[in-house]
Amino acid sequence: MTVSIIERAAAGLRWVVVAGPRLAAFRALGEHTREEIFGVVENMPERQALERFAATSRGQSVLGRLAAETARTQPVEYAELAALAAGAGIDFDTILLANLRGDLGGDGTGCSDLGWRRARSLVAHNEDGAPGLQGRFMLLTLAIDGEAPVTSPTPSARPPAAEWPPSRRPPAG
């Protein structure tokens, strides 16, 4: 299980290339970006409100159902996020809450994504730049063994474990 991480720069932007077996690569990425992950999670504007909600019985019920459904419908991405959290040494529930915040209606950053495939493919994302993301945005290339490499601009606490990889389609409905 050999994983390699190479740091580069592209037009002044940090570019991290991670290659190896899927879960080992995400664990190594968590170790490599530990400081950034903690910085992003600690400085999320909506963090305290999310934690208060998660501490209520309703919040525990909603999060439990959402986490179970996410694990059931997106087992690969769920496992990637768990490996990332383990590598970073951050509590899995903390990083899961940060990554599922938009599904709870508590995403205060207002980011949006667009994927379109007609005559040409187009993928777009606007990152509204919550304060905790300042200086933490990077290009990330995941060269997972046996798969085509994917490069994505991403904040450190949300590598594509929480995004739709181009090779997969979201479930209908």
Weakly predicted, low-confidence segments: 159-173
Which class of secondary structure composition applies to the elements? alpha+beta
> Ends: how far apart?
37 Å
Residues in helix, %:
25-40%
Specify the overall morphology. Answer: globular
Strand order of the largest sheet: 1-2-5-6
Q: Specify Rg, calculated over alpha carbons.
A: 16 Å
Give the helix tally.
6
Q: What's the SSE pattern?
A: EEHHHHHHEEEE
Major sheet? 4 strands, mixed
Mean pLDDT: 79
Number of domains: 1
Q: Care to count the β-strands?
A: 6
Task: Describe the SSE topology.
Blueprint: E1 4-10, E2 13-20, H1 22-32, H2 34-42, H3 47-55, H4 57-73, H5 75-88, H6 92-100, E3 112-117, E4 121-126, E5 137-144, E6 150-155
Parallel strand pairs: 2-5
Antiparallel strand pairs: 1-2, 3-4, 5-6
Helix pairs in contact: 1-5, 3-4, 4-5
